[in-house]
């Protein structure tokens, strides 16, 4: 399990303050923000594996946007020790507002998690999911926390849901445009192996599959495997789109 906490994205603190002040009007006290790859439907067996792996994968994030240092520390502690045991973390989430279950205080882990949240002053939490223009398979996510009980927070947010959704989408676009090289999930979660990066770089330089194979001592089918996986990750239909997207996202300079 990773002990490295993510760095804060290179963005002016005033933009974080704008979002924090805006959400405070509805009872939200803290938040963190990132971009994730959409989760596909899972079988029960796959779900068991997901519970074991997903928190560890989220800990690999190299960059985040957070409203405070404290919420960054809470995120790390929660993912390291509690997420795998918390049903609220694995609730199905849709685009827009998602208020999530609180800890199950009938279990020892749930009681510990409840105490942790009380230490940070949290009574309720949720996620607001939004589309990302760079890739239809990605979602922007605000994970937010409140010192209000869940019923009151729900009432505050649902009463102004359309307005909040519009405003958060504007802030999300600002964050993404300024920090996409850090926030895009491909780089942020180290989705590319060193070999895949080499294939991508040589593809961008215009080398053929045969030439890439010779340079990297790979078979032609091995080169095609990496290129096809790269196109899937970047949502590219062909190599030209792949290279263009890699430049746009800052994966290639």
* Morphology: elongated
Number of helices: 11
Uncertain segments of ≥5 residues (pLDDT<50)? Answer: none
Instruction: Compute the CA-based radius of gyration.
Output: 20 Å
Domain HTH luxR-type: 185-250
GO molecular function, one term: DNA binding
InterPro entries: Sig_transdc_resp-reg_C-effctor (IPR016032), Tscrpt_reg_LuxR_C (IPR000792), WH-like_DNA-bd_sf (IPR036388)
Protein name: LuxR family transcriptional regulator
Keyword list:
2 domains, alpha+beta, single chain, elongated, Arc Repressor Mutant, subunit A, 253 residues, Beta-Lactamase, six-stranded mixed sheet, 15% strand
Description:
By secondary structure, the chain is an alpha+beta fold. Helices cover 52% and strands 15% of the residues. It contains eleven helices and six strands. The protein starts with 6 loop residues before the first strand and ends in a 5-residue tail after the last helix. The relative contact order is 0.13. The model has no long low-confidence stretch (mean pLDDT 90).
Summarize the entry for a quick read.
With 253 residues, the protein is an alpha+beta fold.
Blueprint (SSEs and pairs):
Layout: E1 7-8, H1 13-24, E2 28-37, H2 44-58, E3 63-66, H3 69-81, E4 96-99, H4 108-120, E5 124-131, E6 138-146, H5 150-158, H6 161-183, H7 185-188, H8 194-204, H9 209-216, H10 220-233, H11 239-248
